[in-house]
Amino acid sequence: MPMNLTTILPASRIRDRLIDRIAYANDASYFRLVPQAVVQPNSIGEIQSLFKFSQQNKIPMTFRAAGTSLSGQAVTDGILVDISKHWGEFSVEADVNRIRFQPGIVGGLLNNVLKPHGRRIGPDPASIDACMMGGILANNSSGMCCGTTENSYKTIHSMTFVLPNGFVLDTADPNANQIFENEQPQIAQGLLELKERVTSNPQLSTRIAKRYQIKNNNGYLLNAFLDFDSPLDILVHLLIGSEGTLGFIAEGVLHTLPDFTHKYTGQMYFKNIRDAAAAIYPIKQSGARAAEIMDRESLRAVENNAGVPAILKQLPNGAAAILVEYQAADSESMLQFKKEAQRVIGELKLIHDVEFTDDPIQQAALWKPRKGIIASVGAMRPRGTTSVNEDVAFPVEHLADAVTDLRHLFDDFGYAEGVIFGHAKDGNLHFLINQAFDTPEQINHFDNFMQAMVKIVSGKYDGSLKAEHGTGRNMAPFVETEWGSEAYSIMRNLKSLLDPDGMLNPNVLINDDPKAHVTHLKSLSLVAPEIDKCIECGFCEPKCPSRRLTLTPRQRIVVQRELASMRLVDSNSPEIDSVSTAYAYAGIDTCALDGLCGTACPVGIDTGKFIKKLREKRVTSNKSAEWIVENFGVAEKVTGIGVSLGHAAEKVIGVNGVKSISVTVEKITRTRLPKWNKSIPRLPKKLSGLRGLGGSKEFIYFPSCISRQLGVPSSSTSSTFNLKPSTCHSAKPSSRSPSGQTSIYKFPPTPRVTAAACPSLPRDTNPRIRPLFTKPSCRCGNGLSMENIPSLSIQPPAHTRSKPAAMTSHPKTKPSGVNSPFSMAWNFCTTMSCLNSKSTPWTKKSSCTPTAPPANSTSIRKCTPSPGNAPNPQLCRSTSVAAPSQAIAASPIPNSPPPPPKKKAPKSLQKNTAAITLPTSPAKLA
Question: What is the C-alpha separation between 292 and 421, in angstroms, rounded?
């Protein structure tokens, strides 16, 4: 019997509506491919079945985490596997010297968990607060301080991977090597043969060793064949940096590194960028952890930003700057670095005095221009153009000449606004140019520029065409140019060995099309000034309360851009009607309008303001709103009466019965009403939790209309809960952690809180949710947490800061959806009050019951954080979008969250859930 997608996943996790496919059509690069379907597996078994389905039907498949990729490696016209939704667990192990994680967790969250212990992960990409660990490993991401010694390749301890043939292995298993060689003898032998080809060729071996002395992410990491002997060790390090083309990393374990707490920062100014580049080597030799170079154009882009050094406006044309930072674990080491900093200053050709500082506030002011370059250049780009962000690397001794040549290249091709900046300590430069792809002439111009750039970087200086962003589609045509025919042949053979069908993320890394870098290009249609400057980076997504319910801020903009593009061709097409109808709920009704996306957006876009305007267009009369404003007390009482009556009716006819009443009234009155659901708390008589509390307050309370109506349940008798340490045990120990290892899940110790803050979080909820309170009505939801409000902090009680006790893991529980804007608003309110919560949307109760902890232990609970990670969707450039192939045409997702399990879907939906039939060939998209 043929396999189909609906036999692998439920319809609720197969998204093939046109609006969903458009939303996932882009990553943060300048490429765009519309997937035939977006699937959201939650287990290794489902991943194995998807591999089989892809190979049987010859439909390519691509894994995607946060979609912050800058090189086009997270888009596909086949099946897009979104792992941002159900792969977010992690734990700290081995006395915090290692951290275990799934690929759908945001990298910055791991650092937040490790920081109290004085540890961190090695990779430090600029997007670490948005990108996920799956992408960090798959791209071997580095960053400002990581260099070539602290990346994933150098700090990986073990991983659990799934190969395209379905083979699964946890490499931490003591017998892993034997298992791999016995069960996958062909792959093991093939890897050894490739190693022999490398080691038996002295010229190639020397070239490989030399090229990885600087950052190099172009092609597969061939240094694995030199650095390791066993087939399994070689494979593990080849999967790092493979960009999801060789297999799926289901779980990773990294060694953690010391987090340097002492920092000494200063900014140096030079007459020109050549002098600045020439200063990098002595700065690096002095022990600086970071040396960030910025040319005059990049400084000019940020000189008007608030809080940046005033001297930026006074710099002459052609000037450049280097931001230098020394880091140390103790004051004695830092004292030596300070002496080195003063010595280096005396040796350099500076045009301004340098003032180093160890004041965190002044350090932040110095880092602000560097971190704001991409945003500022993107915001100033001509409307309709795309920001192209490339990264290359040179041997440091050639950096001065190379950066001068790049600047001349910009002038030759008319990119006067182009900027050069980057991690110069490692010879790693980024450059930004703004490019439109609307006409063949524009595309040809960009192609010529890329060809000339390749000749300078790879030809003249033998540098790296990709230092840290990953090869992707934009550099795949030039892998052989950089590496030579023999090395490229080994890479091709490696791909064929692991993925013989070529269905896993094809045309990334290995691509025979010499024009792949100018194919499937993104064109940004103009929509509105509020959102036209969006660079589609995805930084906003972790902050969005509705990212797991419908669309993210980036997706809302992407869909609007596609609608604008479609209307230019045919304003009355059925496709436009389909997307517009779906957008009413997914894009407009479910936007929280809270502006949190704007706090993370590098360009400062508040998508909520734009959505407010769309809502205004749908308002035909303000009479109701005006009446509520003038009679708010009456409206509040009426709402309270309605809640009380709803609970009374619920006792008689049940939750669904009450909900059906509002649905019937909607049909009769042709108006939209809130839907009743089981999570609505009972009405309190008064909210008095904040009164009568003396002394210091260790909580934060966010008052709102919702909390006034749905506040402290009537059963609450105490205004303050001082939680005692507890542990939560499952029936059997975790199968993932070796016996005896500490398993600590992603959150700081519990602070003292009050009932008013989040009056009734249950103690017996799913252990994946962090239980802070004791009553069964209030639950944290939608992923909004204190991590979204950087300016606020909570200091845990002193007794909770000791080493945590070990605990066993719990069975997973699937989160249930939020089923109305009304309950979503309630979850938004309560989540804002859940201190330090790292939760997924609230879930059903589990049987886990707190028990007394061992003596001298602290409170530890397992939970799965909600890394704000939503898929990366973007704009749609083409004038039409082809429908998915019949093989993957799953049932459309309704314009509201799916019904609870065990309930039949409405008849209107049941007829669309037929099993998927298999195609005879891959579907082709426009």
Answer: 7
Q: How many CA atoms lie within 13 A of 542 on its CB side?
A: 33
- Do residues 758 and 778 touch, judged by C-beta distance below 8 A? yes
* Rg over CA atoms, the chain: 28
In this structure, the dihedral spanned by the alpha carbons of residues 505, 509, 512 and 517, taken in order and rounded to 10 degrees, is: 90
Contacts of 362 (CB under 8 A, 6+ apart): 265
Residue 114 C-beta-side C-alpha neighbours within 13 Å = 30
Give pLDDT, residue 780. Answer: 31
Q: How far apart are CA 367 and CA 421, in angstroms?
A: 13
Within a 13 Å sphere around the CA of 8, how many CA atoms are in the beta-carbon half? Answer: 28
- Pairwise CA distance, residues 568 & 879, whole Å: 8
Return the number of other C-beta atoms located less than 10 Å from residue 575's C-beta. Answer: 19
pLDDT in tens, 259-290: 999 999 999 999 999 999 999 999 999 999 99
Helices (H), 58-100: none
Average pLDDT over residues 769-795: 29
Distance, in Å, from the CA atom of 127 to the CA atom of 111, rounded to the nearest integer, reads 13
Which residues are registered as beta bridge partners of 258? 119
pTM, two decimal places:
0.76
Can you read off the two tokens belonging to residue 909? 């939906």
- For 296-427, list the strands marked E by DSSP: 320-328, 386-393, 419-423
671 CB neighbour count, 10 Å cutoff? 9
Distance CA 670, CA 691 (A): 44
Question: What is the H or E stretch that residue 99 is in?
Answer: strand 98-101
Q: Taking a C-beta distance cutoff of 8 angstroms, is the pair 62, 77 a contact? A: no
DSSP string over 745-759: -S-PPPPPEETTTST
